[in-house]
Amino acid sequence: MPAQAHDASTRRPSERETFNLNAGWLQFTGDAAGAEQAELDDKGWTGVTLPNAFNEKQAFARDIKELSTGITWYRKHVTLPKRAAGGRVFLEFEGVRQAAEVWVNGRAVALSENGVTAFGADIGDALVAGDNVIAVRVDNDWRYKERATGSGFQWNDRNFNVNYGGITRNVKLHLTGSAYQTLPLLNGLGTTGQYVWADAFDLTRHAATIHGETQVRNAGDRPRRLGLRVEIFDRTGKRVGRVDGGAVTIAAGETRMLAAETRAAGLDFWSWGYGALYTVTTSLIDGGKAIDSVDTVTGFRQTAFTNGMIRLNGRVMQVHGYAQRTSNEWPAVGVSIPPWISDFSNALMVESGGNMVRWMHLAPSKQDVESADRVGLPQAMPAGDSERDVTGRRWDQRKEVMAASIVYHRNNPSILFYESGNESISEAHMAEMKAIRDRYDPHGGRAIGSREMLDSKIAEYGGEMLYINKSGGKPLWATEYSRDEGARAFQDDWTPPFHKDSPSYNRNQDSHAIEDVERWWDYYRIRPGTGRRVSSGGVNIIFSDSNTHYRGDNNYRRSGEVDAVRLPKQGFYAHQVMWNGWVDPETPATHIIGHWNYPAGTRKPIAVVSNGDAVELFLNGRSLGKGDKSLGFLFRWPDVAWHPGTLRAVSTSADGRKSEHQVETVGKPVALRLKPHTSPRGFVMDGADIALVDVEVVDDRGRRVPAAQDRIRFTLEGPAEWRGGIAQGEGNHILSPDLPVEAGVNRVLLRAGTRAGKVHLKASAPGLAPAELVLDTVAPPALAGGLSRDFPARAQPGLLTRGPTPAGASYRITRSTLQPAQVVAGSNPAEAGASIDDNELSRWTSDGKPDTAWVEYRFAEPVTLSGVELKLVGWRSRAYPLRITLDGRTVWEGETARSLGYVEQAFAPAQGRVLRIQQTAPTADRDGFGKVVELNNAKAAGDTGADEIPPGWRLGIVEADFHGPAPQQ
């Protein structure tokens, strides 16, 4: 398997070597005088394997504001192999939270304070023969201040950035010769490493020009004449391209960029759900011999961001995915997880239909970025932020982490967007961020923007947090939507544990899934193909329940489509149905929300999510009729009498294709069943690996019992540590050996030990047959001098589940857009053009008089119209009584709906030249969306214009689109 990006090549041997330093550390919680000195007696310290957070066991047991903080020390003893004279030695820390000071043999070699980016240290001058001690002091204080300036960091935030303190990401050691390719570590080393990109795409012939660029340093005492060789290898190890650049002389102490390019054909382009990766090996050539070779694992794909749409490999892709906390944490282990767990979690996003993950506030871990490459999950990468623009040193810190993060991740094909802020930033700041992108990643095909930025001339994408945006220019997609919460345990009003369903962050799963459908419909109905101005979609917040920023009655957020141990909720399956295409659904799919186990006499509503045109429901073969369709994907039967048996939904599309889903009544619970999940290598006893084990309550036919809540007692024996699972009640059952199943299933974590032996797990519950599981374990390769050449990520195979980017259009054109030639208004006529200017931060409003509350849109010639789509001032709280006429004939009259953005007034196709919109009665404000915290404040009202434009006789239009029938094909 290939090495990971910027590691010593496994394809072309050279003087360069890369080692895994995760194993064999010693940890001490608290400050320890003299702990940086090599001679300190550390025999009483605790042995740990990295990644490690000293407070990781508190994950999901506490609100993040209550996580332990303080000083933590780490020490590691290493003995280096012999190396060439003049060779260099570098440490690479992928991340430490918050601030880290690093010593080697008592000599300070690095200070990293931002808690986000990777950093490096050149430690060659601090080394001695034999035993060397690396010591790291970590401070995770929420109030940590930068030493040189006294400034805190904006993102060291108790709401959003969970504070798992320690060396929370991987550590590596790199050995090079005196002439070498640098590492992509602006923080600490000030170097940029390798940069690989593709252009001149020929999508039909699967060809592109591949560019390899690398920063080279001659640390020797004489000039070196060096050339650059670039080789491209596919996933099987076959070389598919090679080019040799000309040799240049590099002076002693000089740093220079070397570059080469080659045309390659027959390429598999990286795509959504298609983790087609290549290894690009850059080698320094001296006298025909490779003296320094580096592997960069990357992929090639073409992007475009125009006409309000996103294109990947030439195909339009409406964003439908997740705004996920960068921590991406798990109960009782926090962020300290092996690579296969990252793939397990991230692949579930793709399985649910997600084609974008927007990591929130902070740059993601290298492990998660590379995982997204492997599973085919496009990403939006922030750098460091909390929730507002800043100035002074805090803004400079944001620029620094953006630059460092771009350099570190610019070879990862899954990153399509760079996010400059979790809220709008000034145009001057946006220009600074774009300049950073243009300096460090000018060719990577990635748009840079920020949340909001609707009218920015510089940002290349934008989109609000909750509201609905359309654009005919840069793509606009919602950066967070559908914020409601619901625990997996609470299924519906008829299933224990009974729970009052509430739209205020405490939903049951049936209504939570329906909410997911309703909120997605806002974006899907104005998708590409629905006019000149469209929505590029949005990301649902969040994917997995998170320890951060909760809203409901738990101490963690339950907005996920899976719970904290990645067991799916009903919304997961709803998304699978709606999101299985690039824009329009491409595969017929249907899902019945809920189960079919109830007491006799139960009557309940049934909801089905389907991408078909009609759905018929059958109970034990008897038709219950066709459901009432709403929200594009939802079909309902308001009152169905329960009888034991099989409930089956059959969907039919207009083209005759069918899909179906059924749920059945299962028997009484009789037994437990255990199912393990381990890495492709097995359960590796390296002190860091994790095994997941599912426990189910089943009937006598082995079917899961969906209403089971049995409390399970676990007994663990062997070289593994119990980390348990999560469930409602009793401190969320974190670390407890007793926890209940929810909806008949739960999942627990076992952390690997460091010795050989079998792991025995037993599960029991009163009245049920117990289950037992034996896991064989795998010994990791032995350390040599504290160093390892074993990298678990290399065992991850990558996924090609969705196949290459499909040919053909991803959407149907369902209507045309007609553009008026002139706008005339009853008042404030100079502003009337703002209502059609494709700028959602401008608007036209009338002057408050009944007889002037009108506007006319005049077309150059007669047009056929069938609807008007409006974004009206105060859209969330204000309904407008309107009359719409076409050449004097009324085509629509009524009251507009309150919305999160646009409302459509459809009417029978009619022809004319002058469309008039007139207000017919005064408006009044009334919130249409209840107690949504993010909407229930003055700023949210300001976002809609309701604070500046009073209700009454004031017609206010932010944007108006005029639609007619779809053009003839």
Q: Main traits of this protein?
A:
9% helix, mainly beta, eight-stranded antiparallel β-sheet, globular, 56 strands, seven-stranded parallel β-sheet, 969 residues, single chain
What's the arrangement of secondary structure elements?
Elements: E1 7-8, E2 17-20, E3 25-29, E4 46-48, E5 71-79, E6 88-93, E7 99-104, E8 107-112, E9 119-122, E10 131-139, E11 171-176, E12 179-181, H1 186-189, E13 194-202, E14 207-218, E15 224-233, E16 239-244, E17 248-250, E18 255-264, E19 278-286, E20 289-298, E21 303-306, E22 309-312, E23 315-316, E24 319-325, H2 339-351, E25 357-360, H3 366-375, E26 379-381, H4 392-409, E27 415-419, H5 427-440, E28 447-449, E29 478-481, H6 509-524, E30 537-541, H7 570-578, E31 590-592, E32 603-610, E33 614-619, E34 622-626, E35 628-630, E36 634-641, E37 646-652, E38 658-664, E39 671-677, E40 683-684, E41 690-698, E42 711-717, E43 720-724, E44 738-740, E45 745-752, E46 759-765, E47 768-775, E48 777-778, E49 815-818, E50 822-825, E51 844-845, E52 854-872, E53 881-886, E54 889-895, E55 902-919, H8 938-944, E56 956-965
Parallel strand pairs: 24-25, 24-30, 25-26, 26-27, 27-28, 29-30, 40-48
Antiparallel strand pairs: 1-20, 2-11, 3-4, 3-5, 5-10, 6-9, 6-11, 7-8, 7-10, 12-14, 13-14, 14-18, 15-16, 15-17, 15-19, 19-20, 21-22, 22-23, 31-32, 32-36, 33-34, 33-37, 35-36, 37-38, 39-41, 41-45, 42-44, 42-46, 43-45, 46-47, 49-56, 50-52, 51-56, 52-55, 52-56, 53-54, 53-55
Helix pairs in contact: 2-3, 4-5, 6-7
